[in-house]
Amino acid sequence: VQLQASGGGLVQAGDSLRLSCAASGRTFSNYAMGWFRQVPEKEREFVAGISWSGGGTYYADSVKGRFTISRDNAKNTVYLQMNSLKPEDTTVYYCAATRFKVPSLSSRGYDDWGQGTQVTVSS
Asked: Across residues 87-99, what is the average pLDDT?
């Protein structure tokens, strides 16, 4: 599946952003989805994941209560609503798809990746 992420930008601390990831090429609803972010000199960090049906959602402790992942299978799109943004949330965010029904917490569990979208939060 091909993935196109969008919605990043420059915001102030405490603001909100919504990232979108549009999928094409295969049946989107067959894939669990995840959002990751780049950590310097480390493997991409898990942010949030959602099962193929949307019935299960998973979050990193660092974003729990602030970020919400959702999906619209009719629109072949997964979203990441980010509220109460902090400067430490600044980095590139990636969406990813896995052929399994439940998302993996590891970046190695994903088959396809979007190109990344930059989020910058100023203090």
From this structure: 97
